[in-house]
Write a structure and sequence with these properties.
The chain is mainly β and 273 residues long. It is 0% helix and 45% strand. The protein has a single domain, classed as Sandwich (Jelly Rolls), CATH 2.60.120.200. The radius of gyration is 18 Å and the shape is globular.
């Protein structure tokens, strides 16, 4: 097994800057008018903490910024991507310890968590194929998020799925691992060491009884990723007075089997929608 990338976040989030930190491994994705996205980060003894940039005037807690009228809402309120790691035709594992708390969402106690209200996310991204594989944490559930971004010219279809995996409490921490066999085009979601979900044909939609949250018609083909990048995100479909506090530690990318491959490369901004 080869360690390709590791971050303990002891120095916080080391964002690449051509002037002050050209070797920084992380890049930030804009969200609407927010060039660095709707999130702030700081290092703690428990790991990197990510919270929205706004403040709820009633509670004083961090809350997502409400986009101005007329501006399209980006559900990726904040996202950071690490280096794209060469799979070498082998199996890549992206793992991290995560915890998340969603604040400011008022729901019926009997209602299920709605991931659209907000979640903290561990991302695995194949930029070239538009393929996204995530762990999402709401207050009460752990989710598998799986999607493909459609090509603007219609040469590739797209879809997104959100699949509940397990119950949790806001104070719980979880070891989340996404294991991607690039040769076979298969991905597995491991939660605290146990496999809880799998996709057998990466790049295609899920079989019944799964239902897509969204679907864009167009050609789809099996993805055997050449490069995969780790990422972190805060998501919310409709920002109002809510916020998400994500804590992440010990993020690693490892490769087992396959060829030596190429060095990791940086992931440009604006790579996932």
């Amino acid at each position: 097994m080869t360690l390709l990338f590791h971050d303990d976040f002891a120095e916080g989030l080391r964002v690449r800057d051509p002037r002050t930190r050209p070797d920084g491994p992380w890049s930030l994705r804009p969200a609407g008018a927010l060039a660095a996205g709707d999130g702030t980060t700081h290092a703690t003894a428990a790991g990197l903490v990510v919270q929205p940039t706004g403040i709820d005037p009633d509670t004083g807690r961090p809350a997502f910024v409400v986009p101005p009228e007329g501006e399209a809402v980006d559900h990726l309120r904040w996202a950071a991507f690490g280096p794209a790691c060469d799979t070498g035709g082998a199996t890549l594992t992206v793992s991290a310890t995560l915890s998340a708390e969603v604040r400011g969402v008022v729901t019926d106690e009997a209602a299920d968590d709605d991931i659209r209200d907000g979640a903290g996310v561990l991302v695995v991204l194949d930029r070239d194929a538009g393929l996204i594989m995530d762990f999402g944490l709401t207050d009460g559930r752990v989710w598998a998020l799986y999607g493909r971004v459609p090509a603007p010219d219609g040469t590739r279809g797209g879809f997104s799925y959100s699949v509940p995996l397990a119950s949790r409490r806001p104070s719980d921490s979880h070891r989340c691992a996404l294991v991607v066999d690039s040769a076979a085009g298969v991905a597995r979601w491991l939660l605290d060491g146990d496999e809880v979900f799998a996709v057998q044909r990466l790049g295609h939609g899920l079989p019944e009884p799964a239902r897509a949250d969204s679907w864009t018609p167009g050609p789809l083909s099996t993805v055997r990723s050449a490069f995969l990048a780790p990422g972190l995100a805060l998501i919310a479909e409709s920002p109002h007075s809510q916020g998400v506090r994500l804590t992440v530690s010990d993020l690693s990318v490892t490769r087992s089997g396959g060829s030596v491959g190429q060095p990791a490369r940086s992931v440009p901004q604006g790579v996932a929608g």
